[in-house]
């Protein structure tokens, strides 16, 4: 399930240091000498600014896909939702994040957690795909 929607602010630029040296999980070393340049994450994470939004995740139905409660998802409406993609969908007025699965003429929203059941989309349902998830930002 989705908690909140956010839109990207492309008017701001935040350029952070990018280190060319990989980070060691062992003994620390001074890193100042290894700064390669500045990095703007919008440039790498937001491909279509006018078609991109962010959502905060509630629930654990996608935990096996690495999507946890409170994670932030970057969603692009300009990407075609194809079989196997993780999407943000509106089902009967409620937002949800699920994996899109098409089997012959049937369309399913699949959880990535065995504690949840797949949802077959029927003609009677109010159903719309809002976009394709491109990035998961996991907060520790």
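-> sequence recovered:
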């Amino acid at each position: 399930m989705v908690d909140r929607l956010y839109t990207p602010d492309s008017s701001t630029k935040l350029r952070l240091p990018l280190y060319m040296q990989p980070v060691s999980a062992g003994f620390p070393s001074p890193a100042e000498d290894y700064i390669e340049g500045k990095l703007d994450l919008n440039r790498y994470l937001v491909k279509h600014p006018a078609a991109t939004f962010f959502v905060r995740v509630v629930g654990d139905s996608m935990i096996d896909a690495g999507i946890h409660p409170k994670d932030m998802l970057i969603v692009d409406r300009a990407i075609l939702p194809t079989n196997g993609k993780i999407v943000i969908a509106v089902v009967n007025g409620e937002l949800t994040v699920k994996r899109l699965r098409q089997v012959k003429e049937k369309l399913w929203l699949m959880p990535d957690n065995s504690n949840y059941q797949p949802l077959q989309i029927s003609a009677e349902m109010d159903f719309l795909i809002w976009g394709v998830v491109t990035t998961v930002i996991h907060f520790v």
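The mean pLDDT is 84.
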